[in-house]
Amino acid sequence: xxxxxxxxxxxxxxxxxxxxxxxxxxxxxxxxxxxxxxxxxxxxxxxxxxxxxxxxxxxxxxxxxxxxxxxxxxxxxxxxxxxxxxxxxxxxxxxxxxxxxxxxxxxxxxxxxxxxxxxxxxxxxxxxxxxxxxxxxxxxxxxxxxxxxxxxxxxxxxxxxxxxxxxxxxxxxxxxxxxxxxxxxxxxxxxxxxxxxxxxxxxxx
Length: 205
Fold this sequence. Notes:
5-stranded mixed β-sheet, single chain, two-stranded antiparallel sheet, alpha+beta
């Protein structure tokens, strides 16, 4: 992302001073890992800068429309981002307190020329609100693993074949060959024969 430089002035000269800041960036794209996303309408931001004593606290909202690639079917996937911006710019680097948590403390500094670069805070907000799994639609069916057809657009017929093979490979597949109806019939025959034999016996006096 291109630098977004803001020069601090007397409007933020005292602790407690605040300054609203709105803007638009003509960013066309950004990357997240190996994935690339386009920004057809750029980025808008609405921020509040506050002199918090030891530095400048930047809070607000970033909004944009994003176009990427569906993780299941590889078709274009679109979504809106409305991310929170929250960044602290120290006037001077904070002292080491000896706390182990300080090693993981993430912060920015006001530059020697009394400016701050907002691009890092904006990019962080954009990345944090990008979905981990990007889908063209919530119920995307993905691609057929056999022929690569987009299952949202056509039924190639391989789904039934794959399900049949999966069932055949199941350890419970042998149960399908059991003739439970036949066994019940045999039991009925045995019960019937036993009943007839009982009826044929003379009653004991």
